[in-house]
Amino acid sequence: MKPVLRVQLSLMMFLEYFIKGAWFVTLGTYLIKSLNASGMEVANIFSTQSLGAVFAPFFVGFVADRYFNAERVLSALHLIGAGLLYGMSQAPDATHFYPYVFVYFMAYMSSLSLSNGIAFRHIEDAKKYFPGVRVWGTIGWICSGLVISYLFRWDAPESIQAGALHNTFIMGAVCSLLLAFFSLALPKTPPQVKLRDEKFDFGKAIGLDALKLLKQRSFLIFFVTAIVICIPISFYYQNANPFLVNAGIPNPTAKMALGQFSEAICLLLIPFFFRRLGYKKMILLGIAAWALRYLFFAYGDGQERSFLLLSGILLHGICYDFMFVVGQIYTDRIAGEKYKASAQGLITIAMYGVGMLIGFWVAGAVSDYLKTAYAAQFWEYLWFIPAGISGFCLLLFALFFKEEKTVLDTKAS
Q: Does the pLDDT at position 408 exceed 50?
């Protein structure tokens, strides 16, 4: 892989994930503290990410893959994104904020697919070189947290009170504008000629033809578990930063970036664990880590037991990599050549679309209820809910999932 290409793709990944990390981590805190949003308003805003995940396969498959150079589409999406992020920073309340973030995630989730597509098109040996490029996205996310907490201190209690978190959207907008211009310098990635005359099938793009794989019991159990586990995951994305701020943890955004640090380490260790544990035990560890994380949050505090909160954050690598990444590898193995692409689309829609969409709404409804009924024990009770759901997933997967020794015969109709 040529050094210039490596630098181009790595910087693309760095900016792609820095942009989201610049404002998404502190979004819950901003909505609650600055816009006085209710639990369901917060949930509806976070759920736009799931709606964007459903839209992205259509946009990328129908438009970007057929008619325009991918790097130009990526540039246009981030140019639009910059304007929408600035609009978010100026929104006076959650009602006015929602249209901006709704359209933004349509663009951003599409840009994620495009950035991966550009990288895969130009990397000859993806298994060898892609992880080294993709890890710069994780580094970008970590850097955004460090900038917010240590450089500008926008997440300090007095800064939050003064409304400083609106600057996170402006920082994201500036970086989005930077990536829009930088994208034009990326290697030219023209449409795939073979797709121009081929009829676009939205059902195939989101993986509906891979539903046949659900006839296999273990894949069905994995599929259901993947949807259900995304409900407690949504509690984390929606509430973790406000919780750490409320607990009085210094530099909470930077502390949350420790989760991405552990994610990068666990990603590199996946081959090591595969040889010793296999799919089932690794996924079980991932689910168990979610349950343990929420128990740590429920019993931790910002003083003597702050180590529990930091431990919960550091579990992110096992939580995410052992459930999501290992799950995608398992799906790839079970699907075989015939359903490989469709199965990945199906799992992505199931988790990021259906699962998290339900999860954000559940988290919002639970939050509103607990604030009224159990205000004094709000955070403790809030974390017990996803811990219980994670425990249910753990039991379901342990009892009913059986790791197959052979790949599904996808040639059979």
A: no
3 state SS for the chain: CCHHHHHHHHHHHHHHHHHHHCCCCCHHHHHHHCCCCCHHHHHHHHCHHHHHHHHHHHHHHHHHCCCCCHHHHHHHHHHHHHHHHHHHHHCCCHHHHHHHHHHHHHHHHHHHHHHHHHHHHHCCCHHHHHHHHHHHHHHHHHHHHHHHHHHCCCCCHHHHHCCCCHHHHHHHHHHHHHHHHHHCCCCCCCCCHHHHCCCCCHHHHCCHHHHHHHHCHHHHHHHHHHHHHHHHHHHHHHHHHHHHHHHCCCCHHHHHHHHHHHHHHHHHHHHHHHHHHHHHHHHHHHHHHHHHHHHHHHHCCCCCCHHHHHHHHHCHHHHHHHHHHHHHHHHHHHHHHHHHHHHHHHHHHHHHHHHHHHHHHHHHHHHHHHHHHCCCCHHHHHHHHHHHHHHHHHHHHHHHCCCCCCCCCCCCC
Confirm whether pTM is higher than 0.70.
Answer: yes
Q: Which residue has the higher pLDDT, 330 or 183?
A: 183
Chain centroid to Cα 15, Å, comes to 16
Residue located via tokens 């794989």:
213
Handedness of CA 3, 7, 8, 13 (dihedral sign): positive
Q: What is the pLDDT of residues 284-320, one digit of tens each?
A: 999 999 999 999 999 999 999 999 999 999 999 999 9
Average pLDDT over residues 90-117: 94
Q: Side chain identity at 141, as an amino acid letter?
A: W
CA distance 149 to 156: 7
